[in-house]
Amino acid sequence: MPRAALSKIDKIEHPQSHYATPDDLIEDRDLSREEKLDALKIWEQDARQMLTASNEGMAGSDQGIDPNNHHILGQVARAKDKLQRSAKPAASRGRA
Fold first, then answer.
1. Would you state the pLDDT for residue 1?
2. Other CB atoms closer than 10 Å to residue 92's CB: what's the count?
3. How far apart are the C-alpha atoms of 84 and 72, rounded to whole Å?
């Protein structure tokens, strides 16, 4: 398999290793809309697992302690919503 294809697969399967934020992921022009959604779903699963682990007393990051540091789960949810809203046809957005 070509190196570029492997890199693309890795971006989808391990998005947090390639992007600083979920918004950076949705700006990546190398991934299709569906690939971005798949990557965001994986990122969301990982964030939920980390949150569950920290709630169970397992050591984790200090995310969320600083009020200016929005938890990654919220960032992922907002990015998914932004990506899904951008895919709606223009005609349906303008109707009341």
1. 74
2. 7
3. 18
Find the length of the chain.
Answer: 96
Question: Percentage of residues in the chain with pLDDT exceeding 90?
Answer: 53
Q: What is the CA radius of gyration of the chain?
A: 16
d(CA 84, CA 66): 29
87, HSE (Cβ side, Cα atoms, 13 Å): 12
Give the global pTM. 0.73
- Which tens digit of pLDDT belongs to each residue from 45-54? 998 888 787 6
Q: What are phi and psi of 10, to 5 degrees?
A: -65, -35
Residue 3 makes CB contacts below 8 A (sequence gap 6+) with none
